[in-house]
Design a protein that fits this description.
By secondary structure, the protein is of the alpha/beta class. It has four domains: 194 residues, P-loop containing nucleotide triphosphate hydrolases (Rossmann fold, 3-Layer(aba) Sandwich), CATH 3.40.50; 179 residues, P-loop containing nucleotide triphosphate hydrolases (Rossmann fold, 3-Layer(aba) Sandwich); 111 residues, Arc Repressor Mutant, subunit A; 93 residues, HRDC domain (DNA polymerase, domain 1, Orthogonal Bundle). It has 25 helices and 19 strands. The strands form five sheets. It has a seven-stranded parallel β-sheet with strand order 3-4-2-5-6-1-7, with helices on both faces. The two termini are 45 Å apart. The structure holds adenosine-5'-diphosphate and zinc ion.
């Protein structure tokens, strides 16, 4: 007898409850209805189509844009005991012939296929003879030219469908939030009366933070040192920056690797694998890296530079903590980032499919998006709230789990400081004949001896060093408050200019108050290894667990992964190991109760983990 969907969820994936949206989408597909699922990265889209695929008669085709994505999914499915395969250009012609033959013999339940392949004669002929239960379109936004990642070959999907005698159920999934793209997907794919489910975009296990360090390099080194045992991604906005940061980390002995479009394919693939297999725990990359990376044990994503839009930021940051474990998303902001971002927007990659008018519209839209991104970096309000608000989602005033919510914000009278800052801005312009950016203004006020300051003669201004008694961060906070409050504005080169409102402060002694925040160090979680024996930690999905046992189980997992030549998270996710450390099972029945342990994995790995847990308990 066929298992129920709850049984299949446990048996193959090891979970006992569905996440938001999953059940409705699964039911609809099983009843023969098209679906459209919009969920954030890490929200659990794969199970939404993999589970009905397993419970349906016939095979399921999954169209996916990237080879690495297909490989990862197939690897994970195989480990869960599902017969799966992919057909794409990474296979040799002979391998393709073999794969197609196996497909015709129904040896696979789920087949991943590249969109270019759909209309190729040999593939099409096979597809026409198959009983196809479902056609799944993963990363469906690739079909829209308004999406972040337009792939013209996605337009072949409707043609492919029209060549089939029997139209299968068609399911589309994306993490894209914008309305235009969603409408494009529905229209271009020709979904028929689909059940559309848009889940919340919140990822409660992610902690968001924006830092404005004076020195990004030393700040980064501290952050990385505090997270030594964990795997993380550091995003930079340019190739050059990637090179610089990667070298800095390597110089200090960190296992870092890099990824950007300027490297040879071969090196890029090798570096990516090093990261996925945890041979190198830190990936320094441009935004070219990440799509199709399902590595579920990324504990932090640091943005060394501000990205160009909230969409891009949320997608990149969202690669942390996919398995539900607590993870961090930290953005290191400097005013110069705005400049770089603007440059990147104004010099986009060639796209011949666009008309001049479309190009102009896109440019305006992108500059607008950049503004909203900059707003995120400067806001004093809840960061999670800002992100969710951007995606049109209602949210509480505070979340308690972001840098701003855990900082204490006090309303202070900063009239004197404001007068000095405003007058410094005015004097610089008067003296040089042109305005300067925030960083140099702050350094002047702070009395920096830097060459650039003395070269420009800024040390001769009467406001030079007048705020020496404050930290640069404090000066910056007040300056930011003056920008937000409309006393200062930035020109197109990000130089600071006085507004009419500033006159009131400078000449009429109007009072200025500002919300000044003092950062509170986030609570340390399971990452620090120095914790005492048997120490227990809370985590959202796993509850409290034994930290030392968790580390022991992680080591066992690493040994198994090396033996089987798969990434560690394919054996078990961090979340599964945490639950294992919490429940400390010593029998097969207990082992199966661990979240993330399905029948196949219990059979395959149960004995080894149970033996390790027993050994650990005897030592205690
Ligand atoms: P997406 O494709 O939406 O980015 P994934 O399908 O990769 O997300 O799922 C992210 C993680 O969540 C995976 O580790 C997956 O095993 C896990 N997951 C999915 N559904 C559930 C569930 N119902 N219970 C617990 N974990 C789940
Ligand atoms: Zn918050």
């Amino acid at each position: 007898m066929r298992p129920t969907k709850e049984e299949a969820l446990k048996q193959y994936f090891g979970y006992t409850a569905f996440r938001e949206g999953q059940e409705a989408l699964i039911d609809a597909q099983l009843s023969g209805r098209d679906v459209f699922g919009v969920m954030p990265t890490g929200g659990g889209k794969s199970i939404c189509y993999q589970l009905p695929a397993l419970l349906s008669e016939g095979v399921t085709l999954v169209v996916s844009p990237l080879i690495s994505l297909m490989k990862d999914q197939v690897r994970s499915l195989k480990k869960a005991g599902v017969a799966a395969a992919y057909v794409n250009s990474s296979l040799t012609p002979q391998q393709i012939v073999l794969a197609l033959r196996n497909i015709l013999q129904y040896k696979y339940k789920i087949i991943y296929v590249a969109p270019e392949r759909l209309l190729q004669e040999s593939f099409l002929r096979v597809a026409q003879q198959l009983k196809i239960a479902m056609l799944v379109v993963d990363e469906a936004h690739c079909i829209s030219q308004w999406g972040q990642d337009f792939r013209p070959s996605y337009l072949k999907i409707p043609t492919f469908l029209s060549y089939l005698d029997r139209r299968p159920v068609v399911s589309a999934f994306t993490a894209t939030a914008t309305q235009t793209v969603r409408e494009d997907i529905l229209r271009l794919l020709g979904l028929r009366d689909p059940l559309t489910v848009v889940t919340g975009f919140d990822r409660p296990n992610l902690r968001f933070e924006v830092m404005r360090p004076d020195n990004k390099q030393s700040c980064l080194l501290t952050l990385v040192r505090e997270r030594k045992a964990e795997s993380g991604v550091i995003y930079c906005s340019t190739r050059k920056e990637v090179e610089k940061v990667c070298e800095l980390l390597r110089d200090k002995g960190y296992p870092a690797t890099r990824y950007h479009a300027g490297l040879e394919d071969e090196e890029r693939m090798a570096n990516q694998d090093d990261f996925i297999f945890d041979r190198r725990r830190i990936m320094v990359a441009t935004n070219a890296f990440g799509m199709g990376i399902d590595k579920s044990n990324i504990a932090y994503v640091i943005h060394y530079n501000m990205p160009c839009s909230i969409e891009a930021y949320y997608q990149e940051a969202g690669r942390a903590g996919r398995d539900g474990s607590p993870a961090e998303c930290i953005l290191l902001f400097a005013p110069g980032d705005v400049h770089t971002a603007k440059f990147l927007i104004e010099h986009p990659q060639e796209n011949e499919e666009l008309t001049e008018e479309e190009r102009q519209t896109l440019l305006e839209r992108d500059l607008d998006r950049l503004n909203r991104m900059t707003g995120y970096c400067r806001t004093n309000r809840c960061l999670r709230g800002y992100l969710l608000g951007y995606f049109g989602q209602r949210h509480p005033e505070t979340c308690g789990n972001c840098g701003n919510c855990s900082a204490t914000v006090t309303e202070k009278n900063v009239t004197t400081e404001a007068q000095m800052i405003l007058s410094c801005v005015g004097r610089i312009k008067g003296y040089l004949g042109y305005p300067l950016g925030e960083t140099l203004v702050i350094r002047t006020l702070h009395g920096s001896r830097e060459k650039r300051i003395t070269e420009l003669g800024l040390d001769r201004l009467s406001t030079y060093g007048v705020l020496r008694h404050l930290s640069r961060t404090a000066i910056r906070e007040i300056t930011d408050a003056l920008i937000t409050g409309g006393y200062l504005r930035t020109d197109s080169h990000d130089a600071l200019l006085l507004t009419a409102k500033a006159d009131g402060v400078l000449y009429r002694k109007e009072a200025v108050t500002a919300e000044i925040r003092e950062a509170v160090k986030p609570r340390q979680d399971a990452r620090s290894k120095q914790e005492g024996f048997g120490e227990r930690w809370q985590s959202p999905e796993a509850g409290s667990y034994d930290l030392r046992l968790y580390e022991t189980l992680r080591e066992l997992r690493t040994r198994i992964a090396q033996r089987e030549n798969v990434p560690v998270y394919v054996v078990f996710s961090n979340a599964a190991l945490k639950d294992m450390a919490a429940k400390a099972p010593v029998t097969q029945t207990q082992f199966l109760e661990v979240s993330g342990v399905g029948n196949y994995k219990a059979e395959r790995y149960g004995d080894e983990f149970i033996a390790e847990i027993r050994r650990y308990k005897e030592l205690c």
